[in-house]
Amino acid sequence: MLNSLSGRFLILTTVFVMLAEVLIFVPSIARFREDFLLSRLERAQIASLALLADEMIDPSLEEELLRNAGVFNVVLRRDEARQLMLSAPIPQPVSATYDLRDATPLTLIRDAVVRLFDPEPQVIRVMGNPVREAGLLIEVTMETGELRAAMIDYGIRILILSAVISVITAALLFLAVRAILVRPIKRVVADMQAYAADPEDARRIISPRAGVTELREAEEALRSLETELTSALKQKERLAQLGAAVAKISHDLRNILTSAQLFTDRIEMSEDPAVQRMAPKLVNSITRAVNLCETTLAFGKAEEPAPRLARVDLSEVVGDVLASERLAIGEADVSLSEDIPGMMMLRADPEQLFRVVSNLVRNARQAIVATGKPGEISVSAREDDEAWYVRISDTGPGLPQKARDYLFRPFHGGTRKDGTGLGLAIAAELVRGHGGALTLDKSDDTGTVFTIRLPKGELGQQLEKS
Protein backbone atom coordinates (compact mmCIF):
# COMPACT_ATOMS: atom_id res chain seq x y z
CA MET A 1 0.00 0.00 0.00
CA LEU A 2 2.84 2.39 0.85
CA ASN A 3 4.28 1.92 -2.65
CA SER A 4 0.97 2.81 -4.29
CA LEU A 5 0.08 6.28 -5.51
CA SER A 6 -2.73 6.70 -2.95
CA GLY A 7 -0.56 5.36 -0.11
CA ARG A 8 2.26 7.77 -0.80
CA PHE A 9 -0.24 10.59 -1.20
CA LEU A 10 -1.64 9.71 2.24
CA ILE A 11 1.82 9.83 3.84
CA LEU A 12 2.75 13.09 2.13
CA THR A 13 -0.54 14.72 3.12
CA THR A 14 -0.06 13.71 6.76
CA VAL A 15 3.51 15.00 6.78
CA PHE A 16 2.61 18.30 5.14
CA VAL A 17 -0.38 18.89 7.44
CA MET A 18 1.79 18.18 10.50
CA LEU A 19 4.46 20.52 9.12
CA ALA A 20 1.86 23.24 8.69
CA GLU A 21 0.59 22.66 12.21
CA VAL A 22 4.13 22.92 13.58
CA LEU A 23 4.57 26.22 11.78
CA ILE A 24 1.31 27.37 13.33
CA PHE A 25 2.23 25.96 16.75
CA VAL A 26 5.22 28.28 17.32
CA PRO A 27 3.28 31.58 17.11
CA SER A 28 0.35 29.91 18.91
CA ILE A 29 2.46 28.97 21.93
CA ALA A 30 3.90 32.50 21.97
CA ARG A 31 0.39 33.92 21.97
CA PHE A 32 -0.63 31.55 24.76
CA ARG A 33 2.34 32.70 26.89
CA GLU A 34 1.45 36.34 26.32
CA ASP A 35 -2.20 35.72 27.31
CA PHE A 36 -1.07 33.81 30.39
CA LEU A 37 1.14 36.69 31.55
CA LEU A 38 -1.54 39.29 30.77
CA SER A 39 -4.04 37.30 32.81
CA ARG A 40 -1.61 37.33 35.76
CA LEU A 41 -1.25 41.09 35.43
CA GLU A 42 -5.03 41.47 35.39
CA ARG A 43 -5.51 39.22 38.41
CA ALA A 44 -2.74 41.12 40.24
CA GLN A 45 -4.47 44.41 39.39
CA ILE A 46 -7.77 43.10 40.79
CA ALA A 47 -5.99 41.97 43.96
CA SER A 48 -4.49 45.43 44.40
CA LEU A 49 -7.97 46.99 44.31
CA ALA A 50 -8.64 45.54 47.77
CA LEU A 51 -5.73 47.48 49.13
CA LEU A 52 -6.93 50.67 47.42
CA ALA A 53 -10.32 50.20 49.06
CA ASP A 54 -8.83 49.60 52.46
CA GLU A 55 -5.27 50.68 53.05
CA MET A 56 -4.98 48.42 56.12
CA ILE A 57 -5.73 44.77 55.35
CA ASP A 58 -4.90 41.67 57.27
CA PRO A 59 -1.56 40.02 56.33
CA SER A 60 -3.34 36.69 55.83
CA LEU A 61 -5.75 38.34 53.39
CA GLU A 62 -2.83 39.90 51.54
CA GLU A 63 -1.15 36.51 51.28
CA GLU A 64 -4.37 34.96 49.96
CA LEU A 65 -4.73 37.70 47.36
CA LEU A 66 -1.18 37.16 46.12
CA ARG A 67 -1.66 33.40 46.06
CA ASN A 68 -4.87 33.72 44.03
CA ALA A 69 -3.13 36.09 41.62
CA GLY A 70 -0.16 33.71 41.30
CA VAL A 71 2.44 36.39 41.97
CA PHE A 72 4.88 37.40 44.75
CA ASN A 73 4.32 41.16 44.66
CA VAL A 74 2.41 43.83 42.78
CA VAL A 75 3.75 47.27 41.86
CA LEU A 76 1.33 49.85 40.46
CA ARG A 77 2.40 53.19 38.99
CA ARG A 78 -0.28 55.89 39.30
CA ASP A 79 0.30 59.60 38.72
CA GLU A 80 4.03 59.05 38.08
CA ALA A 81 4.28 57.51 41.55
CA ARG A 82 5.48 53.91 41.81
CA GLN A 83 3.75 52.11 44.69
CA LEU A 84 4.25 48.59 46.04
CA MET A 85 0.67 47.44 46.50
CA LEU A 86 1.14 43.80 47.63
CA SER A 87 4.25 41.89 48.52
CA ALA A 88 5.46 38.54 49.78
CA PRO A 89 8.86 36.93 50.24
CA ILE A 90 10.61 36.07 46.93
CA PRO A 91 12.28 32.62 47.07
CA GLN A 92 15.14 33.57 44.72
CA PRO A 93 16.51 36.56 42.83
CA VAL A 94 14.70 37.81 39.74
CA SER A 95 16.38 36.28 36.68
CA ALA A 96 14.70 38.25 33.87
CA THR A 97 12.31 41.10 33.17
CA TYR A 98 9.70 41.07 30.39
CA ASP A 99 7.91 44.19 29.22
CA LEU A 100 4.71 43.27 27.38
CA ARG A 101 3.88 46.82 26.38
CA ASP A 102 6.18 47.09 23.38
CA ALA A 103 7.03 43.43 22.71
CA THR A 104 7.27 42.49 18.99
CA PRO A 105 5.99 39.15 17.64
CA LEU A 106 9.53 37.89 17.13
CA THR A 107 10.41 38.79 20.70
CA LEU A 108 7.34 36.99 22.03
CA ILE A 109 8.14 33.88 19.93
CA ARG A 110 11.77 33.88 21.08
CA ASP A 111 10.86 34.24 24.77
CA ALA A 112 8.19 31.52 24.47
CA VAL A 113 10.59 29.04 22.87
CA VAL A 114 13.25 29.74 25.49
CA ARG A 115 10.77 29.26 28.31
CA LEU A 116 9.36 26.05 26.78
CA PHE A 117 12.77 24.39 26.55
CA ASP A 118 14.13 25.66 29.89
CA PRO A 119 13.04 23.20 32.63
CA GLU A 120 14.58 25.15 35.55
CA PRO A 121 11.98 27.20 37.52
CA GLN A 122 12.89 30.88 37.77
CA VAL A 123 11.50 34.11 39.17
CA ILE A 124 10.72 36.74 36.56
CA ARG A 125 9.41 40.30 36.54
CA VAL A 126 6.54 41.10 34.12
CA MET A 127 5.41 44.61 33.24
CA GLY A 128 2.35 45.73 31.29
CA ASN A 129 -0.46 48.26 30.95
CA PRO A 130 -3.23 48.13 33.57
CA VAL A 131 -6.66 47.27 32.20
CA ARG A 132 -9.25 50.04 31.78
CA GLU A 133 -6.42 52.62 32.13
CA ALA A 134 -6.30 52.16 35.90
CA GLY A 135 -2.76 53.54 36.08
CA LEU A 136 0.34 53.96 34.01
CA LEU A 137 2.08 50.66 34.68
CA ILE A 138 1.56 47.41 36.53
CA GLU A 139 4.44 45.17 37.47
CA VAL A 140 4.42 41.72 39.06
CA THR A 141 6.99 39.18 40.17
CA MET A 142 6.13 35.50 39.58
CA GLU A 143 7.59 32.02 39.24
CA THR A 144 7.89 30.34 35.80
CA GLY A 145 7.04 26.76 36.83
CA GLU A 146 3.28 27.13 36.45
CA LEU A 147 3.73 29.10 33.21
CA ARG A 148 5.86 26.37 31.63
CA ALA A 149 3.49 23.60 32.78
CA ALA A 150 0.55 25.46 31.23
CA MET A 151 2.51 25.98 27.99
CA ILE A 152 3.37 22.26 27.80
CA ASP A 153 -0.23 21.27 28.43
CA TYR A 154 -1.42 23.69 25.74
CA GLY A 155 1.22 22.43 23.31
CA ILE A 156 0.23 18.79 23.85
CA ARG A 157 -3.41 19.61 23.19
CA ILE A 158 -2.48 21.53 20.04
CA LEU A 159 -0.33 18.65 18.76
CA ILE A 160 -3.04 16.08 19.46
CA LEU A 161 -5.58 18.23 17.67
CA SER A 162 -3.18 18.70 14.78
CA ALA A 163 -2.58 14.97 14.51
CA VAL A 164 -6.32 14.29 14.46
CA ILE A 165 -6.88 16.99 11.81
CA SER A 166 -4.00 15.70 9.67
CA VAL A 167 -5.22 12.10 9.83
CA ILE A 168 -8.78 13.07 8.96
CA THR A 169 -7.59 15.35 6.15
CA ALA A 170 -5.22 12.72 4.81
CA ALA A 171 -7.92 10.05 4.94
CA LEU A 172 -10.37 12.24 3.04
CA LEU A 173 -7.74 13.11 0.45
CA PHE A 174 -6.77 9.44 0.23
CA LEU A 175 -10.34 8.47 -0.61
CA ALA A 176 -10.64 11.37 -3.04
CA VAL A 177 -7.40 10.45 -4.84
CA ARG A 178 -8.49 6.82 -5.12
CA ALA A 179 -11.83 7.84 -6.58
CA ILE A 180 -10.56 10.59 -8.90
CA LEU A 181 -7.13 9.29 -9.99
CA VAL A 182 -6.22 5.79 -8.85
CA ARG A 183 -9.33 3.97 -10.06
CA PRO A 184 -9.26 5.59 -13.51
CA ILE A 185 -5.53 4.83 -13.81
CA LYS A 186 -6.13 1.20 -12.82
CA ARG A 187 -8.91 1.01 -15.39
CA VAL A 188 -6.53 2.34 -18.08
CA VAL A 189 -3.90 -0.22 -17.03
CA ALA A 190 -6.48 -3.00 -17.21
CA ASP A 191 -7.52 -1.86 -20.70
CA MET A 192 -3.86 -1.80 -21.78
CA GLN A 193 -3.29 -5.32 -20.44
CA ALA A 194 -6.44 -6.58 -22.17
CA TYR A 195 -5.32 -5.00 -25.44
CA ALA A 196 -1.79 -6.42 -25.08
CA ALA A 197 -3.27 -9.92 -24.76
CA ASP A 198 -4.75 -9.66 -28.28
CA PRO A 199 -3.76 -6.43 -30.07
CA GLU A 200 -5.36 -7.51 -33.34
CA ASP A 201 -8.83 -7.61 -31.75
CA ALA A 202 -10.33 -4.17 -32.44
CA ARG A 203 -12.88 -4.72 -29.66
CA ARG A 204 -10.10 -4.43 -27.08
CA ILE A 205 -9.18 -0.86 -28.10
CA ILE A 206 -9.71 1.45 -25.12
CA SER A 207 -12.80 3.67 -24.97
CA PRO A 208 -12.10 7.01 -23.18
CA ARG A 209 -14.30 7.35 -20.11
CA ALA A 210 -12.25 9.41 -17.61
CA GLY A 211 -13.76 12.61 -16.25
CA VAL A 212 -10.39 14.18 -15.44
CA THR A 213 -9.17 16.18 -18.43
CA GLU A 214 -5.57 14.96 -18.32
CA LEU A 215 -6.57 11.30 -17.99
CA ARG A 216 -9.08 11.60 -20.80
CA GLU A 217 -6.41 13.11 -23.05
CA ALA A 218 -4.14 10.19 -22.17
CA GLU A 219 -6.92 7.71 -22.97
CA GLU A 220 -7.62 9.39 -26.30
CA ALA A 221 -3.93 9.32 -27.21
CA LEU A 222 -3.77 5.66 -26.21
CA ARG A 223 -6.86 4.88 -28.31
CA SER A 224 -5.24 6.53 -31.33
CA LEU A 225 -2.03 4.57 -30.77
CA GLU A 226 -3.86 1.26 -30.35
CA THR A 227 -5.97 1.91 -33.45
CA GLU A 228 -2.89 2.57 -35.57
CA LEU A 229 -1.09 -0.45 -34.12
CA THR A 230 -4.05 -2.76 -34.79
CA SER A 231 -4.24 -1.54 -38.38
CA ALA A 232 -0.49 -1.97 -38.79
CA LEU A 233 -0.60 -5.52 -37.42
CA LYS A 234 -3.42 -6.47 -39.77
CA GLN A 235 -1.55 -4.94 -42.71
CA LYS A 236 1.61 -6.75 -41.66
CA GLU A 237 -0.23 -10.05 -41.56
CA ARG A 238 -1.67 -9.44 -45.03
CA LEU A 239 1.77 -8.46 -46.34
CA ALA A 240 3.29 -11.57 -44.77
CA GLN A 241 0.70 -13.76 -46.49
CA LEU A 242 1.25 -11.91 -49.75
CA GLY A 243 5.01 -12.25 -49.37
CA ALA A 244 4.73 -15.99 -48.80
CA ALA A 245 2.58 -16.30 -51.90
CA VAL A 246 5.00 -14.20 -53.98
CA ALA A 247 7.93 -16.27 -52.74
CA LYS A 248 6.21 -19.50 -53.82
CA ILE A 249 5.30 -18.01 -57.19
CA SER A 250 8.82 -16.66 -57.69
CA HIS A 251 10.32 -20.03 -56.83
CA ASP A 252 8.21 -21.89 -59.38
CA LEU A 253 8.60 -19.15 -61.96
CA ARG A 254 12.35 -19.20 -61.55
CA ASN A 255 12.43 -22.92 -62.31
CA ILE A 256 10.31 -22.38 -65.42
CA LEU A 257 12.46 -19.49 -66.60
CA THR A 258 15.64 -21.48 -65.99
CA SER A 259 14.33 -24.17 -68.29
CA ALA A 260 13.43 -21.53 -70.85
CA GLN A 261 16.94 -20.11 -70.56
CA LEU A 262 18.37 -23.49 -71.59
CA PHE A 263 16.23 -23.43 -74.72
CA THR A 264 17.37 -19.93 -75.60
CA ASP A 265 20.95 -21.10 -75.55
CA ARG A 266 20.09 -23.45 -78.44
CA ILE A 267 18.05 -20.81 -80.26
CA GLU A 268 21.09 -18.53 -80.32
CA MET A 269 22.89 -21.14 -82.47
CA SER A 270 20.23 -20.86 -85.20
CA GLU A 271 21.38 -19.47 -88.56
CA ASP A 272 18.04 -17.81 -89.26
CA PRO A 273 18.71 -14.02 -89.39
CA ALA A 274 15.34 -13.21 -87.78
CA VAL A 275 16.07 -15.63 -84.95
CA GLN A 276 19.55 -14.20 -84.49
CA ARG A 277 18.06 -10.70 -84.17
CA MET A 278 15.37 -11.70 -81.64
CA ALA A 279 17.35 -14.22 -79.61
CA PRO A 280 19.51 -11.70 -77.64
CA LYS A 281 16.43 -9.75 -76.65
CA LEU A 282 14.70 -12.94 -75.55
CA VAL A 283 17.79 -14.02 -73.60
CA ASN A 284 18.03 -10.63 -71.88
CA SER A 285 14.36 -10.66 -70.95
CA ILE A 286 14.54 -14.16 -69.49
CA THR A 287 17.76 -13.27 -67.62
CA ARG A 288 16.13 -10.20 -66.08
CA ALA A 289 13.11 -12.28 -65.06
CA VAL A 290 15.36 -14.90 -63.41
CA ASN A 291 17.27 -12.19 -61.54
CA LEU A 292 14.03 -10.65 -60.34
CA CYS A 293 12.80 -14.01 -59.03
CA GLU A 294 16.11 -14.69 -57.25
CA THR A 295 16.16 -11.21 -55.73
CA THR A 296 12.58 -11.53 -54.53
CA LEU A 297 13.33 -14.92 -52.96
CA ALA A 298 16.42 -13.50 -51.24
CA PHE A 299 14.51 -10.59 -49.81
CA GLY A 300 11.63 -12.82 -48.75
CA LYS A 301 13.82 -14.65 -46.25
CA ALA A 302 13.27 -13.85 -42.58
CA GLU A 303 16.63 -12.17 -42.42
CA GLU A 304 20.01 -12.15 -44.07
CA PRO A 305 22.61 -14.40 -42.43
CA ALA A 306 24.95 -12.68 -40.01
CA PRO A 307 28.11 -11.45 -41.75
CA ARG A 308 31.21 -13.58 -41.38
CA LEU A 309 33.80 -10.92 -40.76
CA ALA A 310 37.23 -11.38 -42.24
CA ARG A 311 40.06 -9.25 -43.55
CA VAL A 312 39.05 -8.29 -47.08
CA ASP A 313 41.18 -6.64 -49.75
CA LEU A 314 38.79 -4.00 -51.05
CA SER A 315 40.61 -3.60 -54.36
CA GLU A 316 40.00 -7.31 -55.15
CA VAL A 317 36.29 -7.05 -54.37
CA VAL A 318 35.85 -3.88 -56.43
CA GLY A 319 37.93 -5.40 -59.24
CA ASP A 320 35.66 -8.45 -59.43
CA VAL A 321 32.57 -6.22 -59.49
CA LEU A 322 33.91 -4.02 -62.28
CA ALA A 323 35.07 -7.02 -64.31
CA SER A 324 31.55 -8.46 -64.20
CA GLU A 325 30.05 -5.13 -65.16
CA ARG A 326 32.41 -4.67 -68.12
CA LEU A 327 31.04 -7.91 -69.58
CA ALA A 328 27.47 -6.67 -69.06
CA ILE A 329 28.15 -3.24 -70.59
CA GLY A 330 28.75 -4.67 -74.03
CA GLU A 331 28.73 -1.95 -76.68
CA ALA A 332 27.28 0.74 -74.37
CA ASP A 333 29.41 3.84 -73.85
CA VAL A 334 29.93 3.47 -70.10
CA SER A 335 33.37 3.77 -68.53
CA LEU A 336 34.33 2.24 -65.17
CA SER A 337 37.08 3.50 -62.88
CA GLU A 338 38.32 2.86 -59.38
CA ASP A 339 40.39 4.75 -56.87
CA ILE A 340 41.18 2.33 -54.05
CA PRO A 341 44.29 2.84 -51.86
CA GLY A 342 46.74 0.00 -52.26
CA MET A 343 46.40 -2.86 -49.76
CA MET A 344 43.36 -1.27 -48.14
CA MET A 345 42.00 -4.04 -45.89
CA LEU A 346 38.48 -3.98 -44.51
CA ARG A 347 36.77 -6.14 -41.90
CA ALA A 348 33.67 -7.41 -43.65
CA ASP A 349 31.93 -10.40 -45.13
CA PRO A 350 33.49 -10.63 -48.63
CA GLU A 351 30.41 -12.14 -50.28
CA GLN A 352 28.01 -9.61 -48.75
CA LEU A 353 30.34 -6.71 -49.53
CA PHE A 354 30.52 -7.91 -53.16
CA ARG A 355 26.71 -7.99 -53.34
CA VAL A 356 26.41 -4.44 -51.96
CA VAL A 357 28.98 -2.90 -54.32
CA SER A 358 27.66 -4.94 -57.26
CA ASN A 359 24.10 -3.80 -56.61
CA LEU A 360 25.09 -0.13 -56.56
CA VAL A 361 27.35 -0.34 -59.63
CA ARG A 362 24.77 -2.35 -61.59
CA ASN A 363 22.04 0.17 -60.76
CA ALA A 364 24.30 2.99 -61.95
CA ARG A 365 25.16 1.14 -65.17
CA GLN A 366 21.53 0.35 -65.96
CA ALA A 367 20.50 3.96 -65.32
CA ILE A 368 23.19 5.31 -67.69
CA VAL A 369 22.49 2.73 -70.41
CA ALA A 370 18.77 3.58 -70.25
CA THR A 371 19.54 7.18 -71.25
CA GLY A 372 21.45 6.13 -74.37
CA LYS A 373 24.15 8.63 -73.49
CA PRO A 374 27.77 8.05 -72.41
CA GLY A 375 28.52 8.00 -68.73
CA GLU A 376 31.06 7.13 -66.09
CA ILE A 377 30.93 5.07 -62.87
CA SER A 378 33.62 5.50 -60.25
CA VAL A 379 34.36 3.54 -57.07
CA SER A 380 36.66 5.14 -54.50
CA ALA A 381 37.50 4.54 -50.84
CA ARG A 382 39.06 6.20 -47.83
CA GLU A 383 39.32 5.57 -44.09
CA ASP A 384 39.73 7.39 -40.78
CA ASP A 385 40.13 6.31 -37.16
CA GLU A 386 36.50 5.26 -36.86
CA ALA A 387 35.38 3.74 -40.16
CA TRP A 388 36.02 2.82 -43.81
CA TYR A 389 34.12 4.68 -46.52
CA VAL A 390 33.38 3.27 -49.99
CA ARG A 391 31.98 5.84 -52.45
CA ILE A 392 30.10 4.82 -55.63
CA SER A 393 29.40 7.73 -57.97
CA ASP A 394 28.04 7.99 -61.49
CA THR A 395 27.20 10.62 -64.09
CA GLY A 396 23.76 9.21 -64.79
CA PRO A 397 20.37 10.93 -64.76
CA GLY A 398 19.88 10.60 -60.99
CA LEU A 399 17.32 8.59 -59.07
CA PRO A 400 13.62 8.95 -59.93
CA GLN A 401 11.65 11.04 -57.50
CA LYS A 402 9.76 8.00 -56.22
CA ALA A 403 13.02 6.21 -55.46
CA ARG A 404 14.25 9.22 -53.45
CA ASP A 405 10.96 9.45 -51.56
CA TYR A 406 11.02 5.76 -50.62
CA LEU A 407 14.76 5.18 -50.44
CA PHE A 408 15.76 1.66 -49.27
CA ARG A 409 12.08 0.58 -49.06
CA PRO A 410 11.32 -2.47 -51.21
CA PHE A 411 8.56 -2.50 -53.83
CA HIS A 412 8.21 1.30 -53.68
CA GLY A 413 10.30 2.15 -56.71
CA GLY A 414 13.81 1.44 -57.86
CA THR A 415 16.54 3.21 -59.75
CA ARG A 416 14.70 2.56 -63.03
CA LYS A 417 11.11 3.27 -63.95
CA ASP A 418 10.29 -0.43 -63.97
CA GLY A 419 12.46 -1.23 -60.93
CA THR A 420 11.25 -2.73 -57.64
CA GLY A 421 13.76 -1.18 -55.27
CA LEU A 422 14.78 -4.57 -53.91
CA GLY A 423 18.44 -4.08 -54.80
CA LEU A 424 18.84 -0.96 -52.68
CA ALA A 425 16.79 -2.45 -49.82
CA ILE A 426 18.95 -5.58 -49.73
CA ALA A 427 22.17 -3.56 -49.95
CA ALA A 428 21.10 -1.32 -47.05
CA GLU A 429 20.17 -4.37 -44.98
CA LEU A 430 23.54 -6.04 -45.61
CA VAL A 431 25.42 -2.89 -44.61
CA ARG A 432 23.34 -2.56 -41.42
CA GLY A 433 24.30 -6.14 -40.61
CA HIS A 434 27.91 -4.94 -40.47
CA GLY A 435 26.90 -2.14 -38.06
CA GLY A 436 27.35 0.42 -40.82
CA ALA A 437 25.12 2.58 -42.96
CA LEU A 438 24.38 3.10 -46.64
CA THR A 439 23.61 6.75 -47.41
CA LEU A 440 22.61 8.71 -50.48
CA ASP A 441 24.90 11.73 -50.63
CA LYS A 442 23.65 13.21 -53.90
CA SER A 443 21.18 12.52 -56.70
CA ASP A 444 20.31 14.99 -59.46
CA ASP A 445 20.59 15.35 -63.21
CA THR A 446 24.39 15.40 -62.92
CA GLY A 447 24.63 12.01 -61.27
CA THR A 448 24.23 9.99 -58.08
CA VAL A 449 26.59 9.31 -55.17
CA PHE A 450 26.19 6.55 -52.58
CA THR A 451 28.52 6.02 -49.60
CA ILE A 452 29.03 2.79 -47.67
CA ARG A 453 30.24 3.36 -44.12
CA LEU A 454 31.68 0.35 -42.28
CA PRO A 455 32.71 1.05 -38.65
CA LYS A 456 35.98 -0.23 -37.31
CA GLY A 457 34.62 -0.72 -33.76
CA GLU A 458 35.54 -3.16 -30.99
CA LEU A 459 34.40 -6.23 -32.94
CA GLY A 460 36.81 -5.43 -35.74
CA GLN A 461 39.64 -4.78 -33.29
CA GLN A 462 39.08 -8.18 -31.69
CA LEU A 463 39.12 -9.77 -35.14
CA GLU A 464 42.38 -8.01 -36.01
CA LYS A 465 44.04 -9.24 -32.81
CA SER A 466 42.94 -12.80 -33.50
From TrEMBL:
Q: Which UniProt keywords apply?
A: ATP-binding, Coiled coil, Kinase, Membrane, Nucleotide-binding, Phosphoprotein, Transferase, Transmembrane, Transmembrane helix, Two-component regulatory system
Question: Broadest EC class?
Answer: transferase
Give the matching Pfam families.
Answer: HATPase_c, HisKA
The protein's name is histidine kinase
Transmembrane regions listed in the UniProt entry: 6-30, 158-181
Domain Histidine kinase, by residue range, is: 248-458
According to the lineage, what is the superkingdom? Bacteria
Species of origin: Marimonas arenosa
